[in-house]
Description:
By secondary structure, this protein is of the alpha/beta class. It has helices at 18-29, 43-55, 69-83, 106-131, 144-147, 153-174, 198-207, 216-227, and strands at 9-12, 33-38, 60-63, 88-91, 135-140, 178-185, 188-189, 214-215, 238-241. The chain has a single domain, classed as Rossmann fold, CATH 3.40.50.
Amino acid sequence: xxxxxxxxRALVTGGTRGIGRAVVLGLARAGATVVAGxxxxxxxxxxxxxxxxxxxxxxxxxxxxxxxxxxxxELVEATGTHLGGLDIVVNNVGTISHIPxxxxxxxxxxxxxxxxxxxxxxxxxxxxxxxxxSGSVINIGSGSGVVGLPLRAHYTAAKTGLIGLTRxxxxxxxxxxxxxxxxxxxxxxxxxxEGIDPAVKAAYTNRIPLxxxxxxxxxxxxxxxxxxxxxxYVNGATFAVDGGI
Length: 245
């Protein structure tokens, strides 16, 4: 069953590239009206705007740096003005860097935790008044939040934090009819994967039982499931989209 999201209103952060872009387009093509947050005006943002226009909906792109709480407030306010309310929130925005823990500077730790974890908290908290007494919040985590990875202690800490945040909010907000779930991608073909050394990429592929790296669209399909009524009794769950690695 393909989710029918006609009439639903959605906010997606980090919506112009990779998984976020696939989620935005998937939601729009399923009938939702989407506000996509993005950090910079780029050709990727312009091309997404053109693709969204082809879906026929009244979609909107809003430039906002989620590392700045003030800009998160502006993003949520713009969403409320444009949509009048929300049914779906997808916290996708994130950043990553690879630094040995012994040399990890505080500002890098703070930046990664702010973008990957604190922004999810602030966007979700800000969206509560727009969600009302129902809705679906989907957080995009990472397999590294479960297994841990060297050189990424800060990133792993943030993604592990999303697991706890998701589980706590699912219990606290569930009484309001708001479901909160986590999607945990493995190795996915996105701009983040483009910089991976071919040998490392091959090593990852060899560990994946399905024998290949996943696509952003495959992650987006799980997000659409969680955004729809098909998953109406799914709450506080973590969905690994990693080919079995």
